[in-house]
Amino acid sequence: MDNPVLWTLISIQIVMGAFDTLVHHEGSERLAWRASQKTELRLHGVRNFFYAVIFLCFGWVEPHGVFTVLLTTILVAEVLITLWDFVEEDMTRKLPWTERINHTLLALNYGAILALAAPVLWHWSFLPSALIPVSYGWWSVLATVSALGVGLFSARDLFAAARSDRLARPDPAGLVAALPPRRHILVTGGTGFIGQRLVEALVSGGHFVTVLTRDLGKAEDLAHPVRVITGLDQIHNADRIDAIVNLAGDPIANELWTSRKRARIINSRVEMTEALKALVRRLDNKPACLINGSAIGWYGLHDDETLTEEASFKPAFVHDVCARWEQAARPLEQDGLRVVLLRIGLVLGVEGGILAKLLTPFEFGGGGAMGSGRQWMSWIERDDLVRIIARAVADETLTGPVNATAPVPVRNADFTKALAKALHRPAFLRLPAWLLSTALGDMGRETMLAGQRVVPAKLVAAGFRFRHPELAPMLQVITGAKEGATRGAEQKVRSLA
Question: Topology of domain 172-496, per CATH?
Answer without folding.
Answer: Rossmann fold (3.40.50)
